[in-house]
Amino acid sequence: MRSNSSTGGQPSPEKRCLLSRNPTNCFLHTRNVAARSNVTFWCWDLTDRQDIKASANGSSTADSISVLLQMFLQYLSTALFSLATIRSVYGASAPKRRATCAGGQTVQNAACCAWFPVLEDILPNMFDNECGDDAHGALRLSFHDAIGFSPSKGGGGADGSIIVFNSTELTYPANNGLDDPINTEVPFIQAHGVTPGDFIQFAAAVSLSLCAGAPRVGFMMGRPMPVAPAPGPDGLVPEPFDSVESILARMADAGGFTATDVVALLASHSVAGADDVDPTIPGTPFDSTPELFDTQIFIEVQLRGTKFPGRDPGQGEVMSGVAGEMRLQSDHLLARDSASNCAWQSFAGNQAGMQSAFAKAFNKMAIIGHNPANLIDCSDVIPGAPPLPANAGPHLPAGQTMNDIEQACAASPFPTFTAQPGPATTVPAIPQA
Ligand code: HEM
Fold first, then answer.
1. Which residues bind Ca(2+) 1 (predicted)?
2. Among 136, 144, 332, 395, the one annotated catalytic
3. Chain mean pLDDT for the chain
């Protein structure tokens, strides 16, 4: 079966479109990214939310099996290729050399040059160069794709299955709302011919570079196509109404994350909000500075809860301490449970500690389900974020005092912060993309 590519025109001979119900939803998968050769079109259908499967023109179970077989072979060849590349580039006897890309950038591995055009495209065209709704969505998507792995239940982790098998994974309640970032990302995946697994983690790393105060995280390339959806519908992706015990157990199971790692990862909720917890108030932020990757989330979630931002609180929502702000029950409990409260407190006002713990945990999360030896380190493509503005130090929201902090960690007192001047803070909603 042949199809036009997303870039338009007639397909070149080496491009094949497999089993697409809707050819516009094909994207270019490069088996050999370094050499940019041997390209194949893998397809899925986002418009009617059909997964990769037999197409309408008389295909059969055998077709599906053959596609799965082809995908498996693809997986194997990518893995073998990546291994060979890693060996040749990073092998003990191989000299350390840097490659110069067409745009003049230097990278450790020439294969990484392919990501600069992606970077230059998505910064202005996908993210509008801002730490806004699309950047937040890309970060959340990276978590929900990666966490879909369990040694006992299966799943491919950070493999792009949430996009390729969207018709399955988007039915899982925990993935509510992720159709937005998926629809945003798919055209860029199609245009640049990279795997969805790589793109999701790349986009998240790049999104962070737009959020002042964020650490520079790494990026590894080489994730092959996913072979199956993450198991579901319940269980693998934590929900805001889950207990601390079950969230920590799930995160340990998925990637060996400690309680401190989990709390560090939740620094992501400093550039976040909810559209669907209470769908009557989309874009309700989790802290007062959703455009800054700061430690306000760790301070503001520790405040006594006094109000809901909307009229009908959603499942997994508890009262927040600041008007216009939403607090997830999971964040609230992690800040108070003895298993995690001291880790939570340790990041309040500790920008450098939070940055390094987040980056370490994020880098681990981004390769769940993969052997890092099979991936190529392209971290040198990821830009650094600007530092926090000088006037953005840790603080209590206006109108609050330290008496409003609910001390939870038994080992040491919560650090002292002063309130911003002026009338009590009301946080505006995050503008929706
Ligand atoms: C561990 C338990 C976690 C739970 C229970 C949880 C839960 C949630 C919920 C309920 C939302 C709101 C979704 C909506 O209604 O739109 C949300 C948003 C978000 N989460 Fe988490 N999350 C967790 C961990 C993480 C992690 C590890 C990351 C990233 C590394 C992350 C990044 C985000 C971001 C960036 C948003 C905002 C998305 C947007 O504004 O479009 N979360 N999370």
1. 145, 157, 159, 161
2. 144
3. 84
